[in-house]
Specification:
CATH architecture of the largest domain: 2-Layer Sandwich
CATH topology of the largest domain: BirA Bifunctional Protein, domain 2
Number of helices: 13
Order of helices and strands: HHHHHEEHHEEHEEHEEEHEHHH
Number of domains: 2
Largest sheet: 7 strands, mixed
Distance between the termini: 82 Å
Strand order of the largest sheet: 1-5-6-10-9-8-7
Strand content: 15-25%
CATH class of the largest domain: Alpha Beta
Helix content: 40-55%
Number of strands: 10
Radius of gyration: 40 Å
Bound molecules: phenylalanine
CATH superfamily of the largest domain: Bira Bifunctional Protein, Domain 2
Shape: rod-shaped
């Protein structure tokens, strides 16, 4: 067979090329156009062709190669568009999984606290995070220059740039400020819960942060007694930590309550026997509470001869730690989804 005949023969083969899939297509490319392919071989032989035939044969060879390349890319495109069409139309394909978010552990705990107290008649009240001295301290019976303003490590906000002296604008250091706002705007009976973020100027560590979350409660009516407070808190502790939970009240001091107490719950890790979590005492502290000081009622325009009330306040992070045993407080605000995803189903 002359070179010319072989070119003719290959032109026929190329025109009839068929491939069912990508592998067959590649096999054809290798058969004809790779380094060792049949068409490439003809190009190599072309060198030996007498010069008077070179022109015609050269043209034929180029045409052959172009046709082969054209036919292969035609088949490739047809195959790709078929795949795309099939993908578009395959209604049975499993969709890409949609990543659902989860609620933040602190939101879960806050919602649980609110839910427990709402069952005994408490409603939620909210107030501003940027507050004034009057609502955070003044009306809550903190004397002017009272060291508690330092004790609470308040963040004061300077009104004017360069003003060194602290002003009365500050970030609230407790949500008791919401209680003063409620007491001055509503008439008893008052039964509110004040959840929210509070700020204290503390060095950030595993055990402290410059902001955290509180839920405080306030109940004012005629004849509210310390026994009512104790009853409500015992109910809360059992609902939150289980029916076996016991509570203990220790005398304490807050300017806005008299008498004041701190409440411990029996350590649920060791059942009260004493372990490293409760430092061997069998008890862990969870909140501060007391009877609203008559001075506070009067400052808010409530007649302290007619009304009495109780208040309590707890840290949401603290409760979350007891519930979930999170050792490092910073995890709550770092927003690492691997951490955050673990709580929704707890
Ligand atoms: N406001 C107190 C605090 O932030 C908590 C508290 C609230 C204590 C109400 C007693 C009564 O520490």
């Amino acid at each position: 067979m002359t070179l010319k005949d072989r070119v003719q023969d290959l032109l026929g083969q190329v025109a009839g090329m068929q491939a069912q899939n990508a592998e067959e297509l590649e096999a054809l490319r290798i058969k004809y156009l790779s380094k060792k392919g049949e068409i490439t071989a003809l190009f190599n032989e072309f060198r030996t062709v007498p010069s008077d035939q070179k022109r015609e044969l050269g043209q034929m060879l180029n045409q052959l190669r172009q046709q082969a390349e054209g036919r292969l890319s035609e088949m490739r495109e047809a195959m790709e568009s078929q795949i795309a069409k099939a993908e578009r139309l395959d209604l049975t394909r499993t969709p890409d999984p949609i990543q659902l978010g989860t609620r933040h552990p602190l939101s879960l705990v806050r919602e649980e606290i609110v839910d427990i107290f709402s069952r005994i008649g408490f409603t939620v009240a909210e107030g501003p995070e940027v507050e004034d001295d009057k609502h955070v301290y003044g009306m809550l019976n903190f004397a002017p220059e009272h060291p508690a303003r330092d004790m609470q490590d308040t963040f004061f906000i300077e009104k004017e740039l360069g003003l060194q002296k602290p002003t009365d604008v500050l970030l609230r250091s407790h949500t008791s400020s919401v209680q003063t706002r409620v007491m001055t705007s509503q008439k008893p009976p008052i039964r509110v819960l004040c959840p929210g973020r509070v700020y204290r100027n503390e060095a950030i560590s595993a055990r402290a942060h410059c902001f955290f979350h509180q839920v405080e409660g306030l109940y004012i009516d005629k004849n509210v007694s310390f026994a009512d407070l104790k009853e409500a808190l015992l109910y809360f502790a059992k609902e939150m930590f289980g029916p076996e939970t016991q509570i203990r009240l220790r005398p304490s001091y807050f300017p806005f309550t008299e008498p004041s107490a701190e409440m411990d719950i029996s350590c649920d890790l060791c059942g009260g026997k004493g372990c490293s979590f409760c430092k061997g005492t069998g008890w862990v502290e969870i909140l501060g509470c007391g009877m609203v000081d008559p001075n506070v009622l009067e400052a808010c325009g409530i007649d302290s001869k007619v009304y009495t009330g109780y208040a309590f306040g707890m840290g949401v992070e603290r409760i979350a730690n007891l519930k979930y045993r999170v050792k490092d407080l910073r995890l709550f605000s770092e927003n690492d989804v691997r951490f955050l995803r673990q709580f929704e189903s707890c």
